[in-house]
């Protein structure tokens, strides 16, 4: 009897030693490999796979290990052991809460991970606690009920798939089409409500309506894909099938997200464009294409990196390389960076608007466009100047476009032999003309006899035109100048020009060449009144 007992003790010891020898929990790779390897059909030993579950033993640990394997299979999470670390002291440097921890699928299954406890690696307590919840999400309650009611012929295989799986797949396709149609209708209505809530106006722009419809389309497809992703694991296809199906779903979701965000950018920019068109500031109109290009670039870049992640590319390495390369690129393109900063400064300070007449350094002209790198200014002779925004932001800018009025200062030169009475009458007449001019401020002008020039008596005329437009200013000058010339002709005033006069005191039988002036005050008043009345009739006030 003692020999028999000794035999069983030795047998158990040997069996336990062999089992322990086959189970490797020394590093993340070994632990995950042990779990997956001993749940394969040809190497099925669930009691060994259960040793990777921390804190549980026996049947409970086996159930958890099997469920965990089914969760990974149902989600199509294929484990590439070549990417799992073999280091027993692997340190997760990404920033997780524990030092010795490895997460195989940080994006799709962050709750499933292994960690080092004492000297071995196990599936963590958090993972074990979350297995039942994750299993219920992947395989809802109705899966077991459907399995129990499937008849025997439903388990017959066609092209490697059971009949009930093919039937359920067809039903899933039909349900997905119905979900898509219903969600598309609802999504468009929701987008309309959101647009009304933001702008407080109903949609009247056909382009905005079209963009909203195009935006509702990928959103509906995205929700339909989520529906397929939630139901498809219940069909219990193999890991290989699930792997490719979920890869396709994830790629499609990424593409749709990119499309949605691009359309969303277009909708926002269209709404912003309508808002800017209602403002007097034209600089914010120029901001629309710049913001559109910037946001579009951000969406495309993030979508590109997301797509790389789906194909197993380590984007952290790419970002690190891009950072180093970006630093070198930035050093080589300092002017571009400075121009971008200058562009931001211009849009923040708003020293001018589109259409303003400005002087910046040696360049004078109308601002036509503020670009991402430079500003385009068109001079009076239609020449186009491209000024880098980095330099323009540092220049002293004289913005004529923000003046309240356009100032005009000139000097009227009349002959030296003009009598004082006639000078006074001429100055008075010019003042009266300015007072009735509809395009000149009548409360801020100066007309005075200010000095003696080389060839003329100088009368300064300083006025302010109401219109800021250059063309309107020139037309107003034309009317003013023409009326002053008529006034001078009516009074007998001659304008001077550079000349030299030889005076001969005695010249037989010859009369003097000096003009004779009429200094009758009544004639002055009549002439001035007639000129002013004629001008008033030809140029009535604009508010009359």
TrEMBL record:
It comes from the Bacteria. InterPro entries: LSM_dom_sf (IPR010920), MS_channel_C (IPR049278), MscS_beta-dom_sf (IPR023408), MscS_channel_2nd (IPR006685), MscS_channel_C_sf (IPR011066), MscS_channel_TM-2 (IPR011014), YnaI-like (IPR045042). PANTHER family: LOW CONDUCTANCE MECHANOSENSITIVE CHANNEL YNAI, OW CONDUCTANCE MECHANOSENSITIVE CHANNEL. Keywords: Cell membrane, Membrane, Signal, Transmembrane, Transmembrane helix. It is a multi-pass membrane protein. Residues 335-399 form the Mechanosensitive ion channel MscS domain. This is Mechanosensitive ion channel protein MscS. Belongs to the MscS (TC 1.A.23) family. The lineage of its organism: Bacteria, Pseudomonadati, Bacteroidota, Flavobacteriia, Flavobacteriales. Its main location: membrane. Residues 410-487 form the Mechanosensitive ion channel MscS C-terminal domain. The keyword Endoplasmic reticulum does not apply. The chain crosses the membrane at residues 163-183, 219-238, 244-265, 286-305, 311-332. GO terms for molecular function: mechanosensitive monoatomic ion channel activity. It is found in: Cell membrane.
